[in-house]
Design goal:
The protein is 45% helix and 13% strand. Helix 8 (193-208) packs across helix 11 (239-246). Mean pLDDT is 91; it is low at 556-568 and 745-761. The chain is globular. It has a six-stranded antiparallel sheet with strand order 12-14-13-16-17-15, with helices on both faces. A five-stranded antiparallel sheet has the order 5-6-10-8-9. By secondary structure, it is α/β, with parallel strands linked by helices.
Length: 1001
C-alpha cells in the first residue's frame, strides 16, 4: 500500500517538477541518506525544490497521500534531523536570494545561503550575521535558524530566536504565511481562524501556569535547543510573532521555512584575545564565572567570548604551553601539582571587542584586574594583533580535526553538546570530565563556549558491537543524570534535539512543558508527517538505532602504499598520508568548495558511496546491488569530479576527494588495458602527438572562419551530443608552435652562462628557466582574441623587459609535468613524465641555481608537489616576487576581472594574483562564489555541462561590473571562463605587460 502511495506521489510530482530534480535511483537515494550525524535513513524519493510554489504543492501532495516529509539545507546537522526514510525535500542551491535593508540593520534571506556568505554580504556595512556556529562556513541559513545553532559569541542574547524579525513559512496544508506581511497575516486570520485561536489559547495556558512560565524563562536563560521552542509564548503577545519564533529550533517538524528576516549585528572593528592558562579546570571555570559579570556602563558584557580547552584538547593540538607544563610536571618542578599529573591544565581563550582602541584598552584592563584574584600558570597577556591572536583561534579550531584524525578506522567522531547554568560551572565541569573518563573514553576532550556554560565533548565511538553501543548508551544515561537531574541544564545547547535526544525531551522539561510542545506539534502537523521521529519519538531507544555504517574503503592507506609500489608512483607515496578518506566523518564541510555539489554529487557523497561499494565488495552480500551502484556512480561520481582538491581546504581532516577519484580511475585502467596502453603511447611519443594536435586546431580554426560562429557552434554541439566528441566553442585556440629560431637563440645558455638572449636592449643581470606548459606550446590565441601575441611570446617579451635572460630546457616539446595522466588515473605514467621534466629543469637551472617559471598554474602545482629541489613559480608569484622592482607600473582605470584557479588557492597564492592585478588596475573585480571553474584539464571539452554549472554565477557579475576582459593563469581555465562569462580571459602576464615599462637600471 505504501509503495503505491509513493508511486502515485511521484507521478503527480513529475507534473510540476522536472525529472532531473527528482531522484529515485539507488545511488542518489543512498547519497542523500547521510547528514553530519551518526545515523542513516535512506529516502524513497529526493526532490531538489526550487521555489515556494513547488514546496507548497509537494506538501499538499504528501498530505493527501499520508507520506512523511523531511527538509534539508546543507545537511551539516549532527543529531539526525536532516535524514528521512520517506520523502526528502532539499532547499539548498536554488534558495540563495537575499535583500538588505536600507539601514543595513536587517537582512532577508532564503534558506540556502551559507552563513559565511551572509557575513561577506554584510561586511562592507560593518555588520555581521549574529548566529556564529562553528559550521558557519558550511551550514545554510535554513539549518542555522531551524536548529537555533548559535556559537562562540552569540550566546542567548543574539541567537536566531532573539534576532528573528519575521518568517515566511509553508504549512503542511500548503498554505504560505508571511508573518511580516500585513496582507498575508490578514488572509491567514480568515483561512486559519482556529489555528490562531489555538495559538492564543496555548499562550494563555502557559502564562497562567506560573510554575511552567518561570521554568521556561529559567531553561532559556542558558543555551537550550532540547524540544520545541516554548519561549515565544512568554515573550510575545502577538500570535504571528509566536508563530514566527516557534520556527526557531523546530528542526522542520512544524513547517517549511522559505524566507527569514533577521536583525544584523554590529561588527566591532577592534578586537583582542588572550590564552589564559589555569592549573585546574575548576579554577578556570571560576575565572569564567567572574569574567561573565564584567559589564560596561551600558550593561554590555566586556568579555565577548571565553572558549575553554581542557588538557586533552591542548594535548591534541600540541599546544606549546601544555608541552612546557607537561615537562615541568614530569620533573616535579611545579609547586602544588602532583608529579606527573598533567590533567589539570586548562586554557580559556578569551576575547574582547570594542568600537575604539581606547575602549579596547579599557576592556583589557578590566579583565586583567578581574583575573588578579585567580592563579594562572603563565602571566595574562592580551594581544590586539591579528597575526598573533589568529594563532590562538587556530588552536581552538584545530581540536576537532586533531582528535577526529587520531580515531581508530571504522569509528566515528561524535560531538555531544550540553550546557550548565553559569553558577554551576566549576563543579559541573569537573564532574563532566570525571564522568567521561569513568566510561573509558580515554581520548575524549572537553572544550567549548564556557562563557555560556556550553560545552562540547568529543568522543571517538564505534557502533560495530553491542558492547560498544551499550557503552555509549550508558554514557548518555549518566550524562542525562548529571546535566538534568543534578544541575537542571540543557542536554542539547545548540546542535538540535534530532533523534539523538528525542527520548530525553520529556525527562528534561517535565510533563507540563512536554504537553505544550506536543500541542504545538499537533496544531502545525496534525497528521504527524513533518520530520517524524525528530524531537518527538516514542521509542526510548531511537538514539541507539539506525547507526550510520563506516566501513573501511577498499582504497585504504595500506592499499595506497601497495599501489604506489606496484606502479612506482611517487605521487601516491607522497599522498598516502593525506589521502585519509577513511577518517571522513561525513560532516559536509567540504561541500562549500565542491563545484559539482548540487549538480551531480558532492565530495562527501562520493565518500559515502565508495564506502558502501567497498562494504559490498568485502562482504560479497549483494553483487547485483554492487554492480548497479558501480554503474550508476560513473557519471555523477567519476566523470563529473573535477579532481581539483578544493574540498580538502574546508575539510577538518584535509581529505582530498580528488585524490580518491584519481585512484578510482587508476583501478579502472590497470596496466595492460587499452586505455593504459594509449596513455603510455602518448607519453612515449609526446612531441609527435602534439604535432598531430596542431593541424586539428588549425582545421577547427579554418572551419570557424568558413562557417561562422553560429553554424560552427550548432554543428559541433550536435556532434558532441550525438557522438560524445569534445565540444568546440568560439574560445577554442588556434594552433601554436614556438619557433626553432627562438629556441636556438637561447639553447646555448644551458652550456654557456655568459650567452645573452638576442633582440633586447636591456642589460641582463638575471636568469630564469622558462618552461612553457605543453598546452601553451600547442595552443595559441582564439580567433577573436583581444591580444596579439601567443602567451609564450608575451612571457618572453615581459621577462626581457625586466632584464632577464631566458633559459628553455632541452627537448622541451617532449616534456610534461604529468598532470594529464594524473587526472586520468595513470599515476605511474604521470610520475615518469614528472621525473623527465625534473631532470631537464635541474640541468637547465644549473642544479637549482636559477628559478624556474611555468606559465600554467595547475602544472606548477603538480610540479611543486613532486619536485622539491628547485624553486618553482607560476606567472603571478614570479612577477610579484622578482619583476616588481624591475618594472614601472602605471595602473589603468579599466575594470578587470581576476579568476583565482584552484591550484592558486591550494598553493596559498590567491592574495598574490589579486595584489598583482591591483598594481595594474584601479578597479579589480574578483567574482564572488566562483571557485573551481570546472574545466579540469580537458574535462571542459568532454563534459562542458560541469564547466557551465561551476561558472553559473560568473556572467551576471561580469555584466554588472562592466568588465570587458578577464585575467587568470591557466590556459584551459581561460577557455572555459571565456565561454561562460561573455568576455575573453587571458593570462595575467598580458595585463602586467600592458601596464608596465622597464625600470631604469
Amino acid at each position: 500500500m505504501k509503495e503505491q502511495s509513493y508511486m502515485a506521489f511521484l507521478q503527480e510530482a513529475k507534473r510540476f517538477i522536472p525529472q532531473e530534480r527528482i531522484y529515485t535511483d539507488e545511488l542518489r537515494r543512498l547519497a542523500w541518506g547521510t547528514d553530519a550525524g551518526f545515523y542513516r535513513l535512506i529516502p524513497q524519493i529526493v526532490i531538489r525544490s526550487k521555489d515556494e510554489d513547488e514546496v507548497s504543492q509537494l506538501l499538499k501532495l504528501a498530505s493527501r497521500h499520508g507520506l512523511p516529509v523531511t527538509f534539508r539545507a546543507a545537511g551539516t546537522s549532527l543529531s539526525g534531523q536532516a535524514i528521512s526514510d520517506s520523502i526528502l525535500i532539499v532547499a539548498g542551491k536554488n534558495w540563495e536570494k537575499y535583500s538588505i535593508s536600507a539601514d543595513h540593520e536587517q537582512i532577508t534571506l532564503q534558506p540556502g545561503i551559507i552563513g559565511q556568505r551572509v557575513n561577506e554580504l554584510l561586511a562592507p556595512y560593518g555588520r555581521k550575521f549574529a548566529p556564529d556556529p562553528a559550521s558557519v562556513k558550511s551550514a545554510m541559513v535554513g539549518g542555522i535558524v531551524m536548529n537555533n545553532a548559535s556559537g562562540m559569541n552569540c550566546g542567548t542574547h543574539a541567537n536566531s530566536d532573539k534576532v528573528l524579525v519575521s518568517a515566511r513559512i509553508i504549512l503542511m496544508d500548503g498554505t504560505l504565511l508571511d508573518t511580516g506581511n500585513p496582507v498575508s497575516r490578514a488572509s491567514f486570520e480568515v483561512s486559519h481562524r482556529d489555528f490562531i485561536r489555538r495559538i492564543c489559547e496555548l499562550r494563555d495556558e502557559i502564562r497562567t501556569n506560573e510554575k511552567l512560565a518561570e521554568r521556561i524563562r529559567y531553561k532559556y536563560s542558558i543555551k537550550n535547543v532540547t524540544g520545541l521552542n516554548l519561549l515565544p509564548f512568554v515573550r510575545f503577545d502577538d500570535p504571528f510573532e509566536i508563530i514566527a519564533h516557534l520556527m526557531v529550533g523546530s528542526e522542520g517538524t512544524l513547517a517549511f521555512l522559505s524566507e527569514v528576516t533577521m536583525k544584523t549585528e554590529y561588527d566591532y572593528p577592534y578586537k583582542a584575545s588572550a590564552m589564559l592558562y589555569f592549573k585546574t579546570i575548576k579554577e578556570a571555570s571560576r575565572a569564567v564565572v567572574a569574567m561573565k559579570k564584567l559589564v560596561d556602563e551600558t550593561g554590555e558584557w566586556t568579555v565577548k567570548g571565553a572558549e575553554m580547552l581542557d588538557y586533552k584538547s591542548l594535548s591534541s593540538v600540541n599546544d606549546p604551553v601544555f608541552l612546557k607544563y607537561k615537562g615541568e610536571v614530569a620533573s616535579s618542578a611545579l609547586p602544588g601539582v602532583e608529579p606527573g599529573d598533567e590533567t589539570g591544565l586548562t586554557a580559556v581563550l578569551t576575547e574582547t571587542k570594542a568600537r575604539t582602541p581606547e575602549e579596547l584598552q579599557q576592556n583589557i584592563s578590566a579583565i586583567e584586574a578581574c583575573l588578579q584574584a585567580f592563579t594562572t600558570y603563565i602571566p595574562v597577556r592580551f594581544t590586539d594583533r591579528p597575526e598573533e591572536y589568529s594563532k590562538y583561534w587556530a588552536i581552538r579550531s584545530g581540536i576537532f580535526p586533531s582528535v577526529g584524525g587520531t580515531r581508530q578506522p571504522g569509528t566515528t567522531c561524535l560531538i555531544e553538546d550540553i550546557a550548565f547554568h553559569i553558577e554551576d560551572l566549576p563543579e559541573a565541569t569537573a564532574e563532566l570530565q570525571q564522568l567521561i573518563a569513568r566510561h573509558g573514553y580515554d581520548d575524549a576532550c572537553i572544550y567549548g563556549h564556557a562563557l555560556e556554560g556550553n560545552y562540547h565533548f568529543i568522543i571517538n565511538q564505534s557502533f560495530s558491537t553491542q558492547a560498544e553501543v551499550k557503552r555509549y548508551e550508558d554514557l548518555m544515561n549518566d550524562i542525562k543524570t548529571l546535566v538534568v537531574d543534578k544541575y537542571d541544564g540543557s542536554l542539547k545547547a545548540e546542535h538540535g534535539t534530532g533523534r539523538n535526544m528525542a527520548p530525553f525531551v520529556r525527562h528534561e522539561w517535565g510533563d507540563d512543558a512536554y504537553k505544550a510542545m506536543k500541542a504545538v506539534k499537533e496544531l502545525f502537523d496534525p497528521q504527524g508527517l513533518l520530520n517524524p521521529g525528530v524531537i518527538f519519538n516514542d521509542d526510548p531507544q531511537c538514539h541507539i538505532k539506525n547507526f550510520k555504517p563506516l566501513p573501511l574503503l577498499v582504497m585504504s592507506d595500506k592499499r595506497h602504499a601497495t599501489n604506489a609500489m606496484q606502479h612506482d608512483s611517487a605521487t601516491l607515496v607522497a599522498r598516502s598520508s593525506s589521502l585519509v578518506a577513511d577518517k571522513c566523518i561525513e560532516c559536509g564541510f567540504c561541500e562549500v568548495n565542491c563545484l559539482s555539489c548540487g549538480f551531480t554529487l558532492s565530495s562527501r557523497q562520493r565518500i559515502v558511496l565508495q564506502r558502501e561499494i567497498s562494504r559490498l565488495k568485502q562482504s560479497g552480500e549483494d553483487p547485483t546491488r554492487l554492480a548497479l551502484l558501480e554503474k550508476q556512480y560513473r557519471y555523477p561520481g567519476n566523470q563529473t569530479c573535477a579532481g581539483d582538491g578544493l574540498c580538502s581546504m574546508s575539510c577538518p581532516m584535509g581529505i582530498n576527494t580528488g585524490d580518491l577519484t584519481h585512484i578510482i580511475r587508476q583501478e579502472a585502467l590497470p596496466k595492460g588495458s587499452l586505455g593504459y596502453k594509449a596513455g603510455d603511447f602518448v607519453a612515449n611519443h609526446f612531441a609527435g602527438i602534439k604535432s598531430t594536435l596542431r593541424p586539428i586546431l588549425s582545421l577547427a580554426n579554418f572551419s570557424h572562419s568558413l562557417l561562422g560562429t553560429k553554424a560552427m557552434s550548432n554543428i559541433t554541439k550536435g556532434l558532441h551530443n550525438a557522438l560524445g566528441i569534445p565540444l568546440w566553442t568560439p574560445a577554442m585556440p588556434k594552433s601554436y608552435q614556438l619557433q626553432a629560431t627562438e629556441l636556438q637563440a637561447t639553447s646555448t645558455m644551458q652550456h654557456n652562462s655568459a650567452a645573452l638572449v638576442t633582440r633586447s636592449s636591456v642589460t641582463r643581470n638575471y636568469k630564469v628557466v622558462y618552461f612553457p606548459s605543453c598546452i601553451n606550446q600547442t595552443m595559441g590565441l582564439a580567433k577573436k582574441s583581444p591580444v596579439e601575441q601567443p602567451l609564450v611570446n608575451k612571457m618572453v617579451s615581459l621577462l626581457q623587459k625586466a632584464g632577464y635572460e631566458i633559459i628553455f630546457p632541452k627537448d622541451m616539446d617532449k616534456l610534461c609535468c604529468g598532470t594529464i595522466w594524473e587526472s586520468k588515473g595513470m599515476l605511474d605514467i604521470a610520475d615518469r613524465k614528472t621525473a623527465e621534466l625534473e631532470a631537464a629543469l635541474w640541468e637547465a637551472s644549473e642544479q637549482g641555481k636559477y628559478p624556474v617559471l611555468c606559465d600554467q598554474s595547475p602544472c606548477l602545482h603538480r610540479m611543486r608537489e613532486c619536485i622539491k629541489k628547485m624553486k618553482l613559480y607560476e606567472p603571478a608569484e614570479f612577477i610579484y616576487t622578482f619583476l616588481r622592482d624591475k618594472l614601472i607600473f602605471t595602473p589603468i582605470n579599466r575594470p578587470v576581472a581576476i579568476h583565482i584557479t584552484c591550484s592558486m588557492r591550494k598553493m596559498g597564492l590567491a592574495d598574490t594574483i589579486i595584489a598583482l592585478a591591483r598594481l595594474c588596475s584601479s578597479k579589480v573585480i574578483v567574482p564572488e562564489e566562483v571557485g573551481c571553474c570546472g574545466f579540469a584539464g580537458d574535462r571542459g571539452f568532454t563534459y562542458p555541462e560541469l564547466n557551465s554549472y561551476a561558472l553559473r554565477k560568473l556572467r551576471p557579475q561580469i555584466e554588472a561590473s562592466g568588465v570587458s576582459i578577464g585575467y587568470s593563469n591557466s590556459r584551459t581555465c581561460e577557455i572555459g571562463l571565456t565561454t561562460n562569462s561573455g568576455i575573453p580571459y587571458v593570462s595575467i602576464a598580458y595585463l602586467v605587460d600592458e601596464c608596465t615599462k622597464a625600470a631604469d637600471n
